[in-house]
Amino acid sequence: MAKEKDVDLGPELEDELSEDELLQESLLEDGESNEIPEGEEDNKQLDSTKILMLVGLGVFAFVFFFFFTFPLNEIVRSILAESSKETGIVLEAKEIHFPFFGRKSFDSFVAQFASGSVIKAEELSFSLSLFGLISARLDGDAEIGFLKYEGGEWSVQAKSVSFPIKISSIDDKVTRWNGEGEILLSGGKFFESMEIPMLGSLKGHEIKKASFQFKIRSGKVMIEKGLIDSSIAKIQFQGVIRLSDSISLSQLEIKACASLNDKFAQERQDIAGLATLLPQENGKICIPIRGSISSPKVDIPNLNQLGGANSNIQTEQPTLEPIAPAPTTNP
């Protein structure tokens, strides 16, 4: 059997083979070193999640402190001061609570007009939709505690007034407004009053409650149901107010029906007697009111004979054509 002969490689070929082996070993080591352990990958994912959570927490904290610690109260106070300079109507409040969300309120609110008239409210609170205001809509309500008006010969107070309202489109001109609302009043009282024809002064008389339900449609305020329950009479209103860009020129088409309070009728039998001479419907005195807000007119026959000639409310008198004198014939 022939012996296997060892292949004799030259020194140069052996050196090349050893270099190839070293190169392969180094490549294998580099591949192993580039592999990331599973634990390290999980740690990196956790670190990314923590970073996102911290960023979100920071944004939330900023928004929270911005909305709840931003000095809106002082900003509103400065706006009231600037408005007073521009309009001449002094607006003041002892305390202002004006959060971004929730009800806004003014304590000891005062509005003083150039004419000297003053409106005071111990507490005024309201709620408005900010998104509605941005889109030129008014949707909210206002509540007033102990409202008082003082002006000229008048001094009137109400314990509470609430005013829910919705207006779908706010425009510079009120004749373009559309919406609906309601006014509720309770605990009213006259402290001072001018002399009113036939009635005299209203001083000491009370308004037990009052309510007005209305709709605004294309420049018209439609009073669907109005009621004033006072110590003098219970008065019901219904009709239309045609709005003008100048509120004082708005036209009235209102029907007011009243029934005297029994106690008042006994104390003022002179008024009760005069009331029987006025137009009545279903046992109630009914008077049409026309004209403008600044100059209302009532159509009451013979009101001048009843003492209404000096009233600020004008009366519509029928006009009579003059009768031509009969022709005379010479004898």
Largest sheet: 14 strands, mixed
Low-pLDDT ranges: 1-7, 306-311, 317-331
- Tell me the total number of β-strands: 14
Write down the overall mean pLDDT: 78
Distance between the first and last residues' Cα: 192 Å
Approximate strand percentage:
35-45%
Shape by Cα distribution: elongated
The amount of helix comes to: 25-40%
Would you list the SSEs in sequence order as H and E? HHHEEEHEEEEEEEHHEEEE
Overall SS class? alpha+beta
Counting DSSP H or I runs of 4 or more residues, the number of helices is 6
Question: Rg from C-alpha positions?
Answer: 42 Å
Protein name: Type II secretion system protein GspN
Region (Disordered): 1-20, 305-331
Transmembrane segments: 51-70
Biased composition (Acidic residues): 9-20
What would your notes on this structure say?
The N and C termini lie far apart (192 Å). The radius of gyration is 42 Å and the shape is elongated. Strands 1, 2, 3, 4, 5, 6, 7, 8, 9, 10, 11, 12, 13 and 14 form a 14-stranded mixed β-sheet that branches. It has a domain at 129-315. 27% of the residues lie in helices and 39% in strands. By secondary structure, the protein is of the alpha+beta class. It has 6 helices and 14 strands.
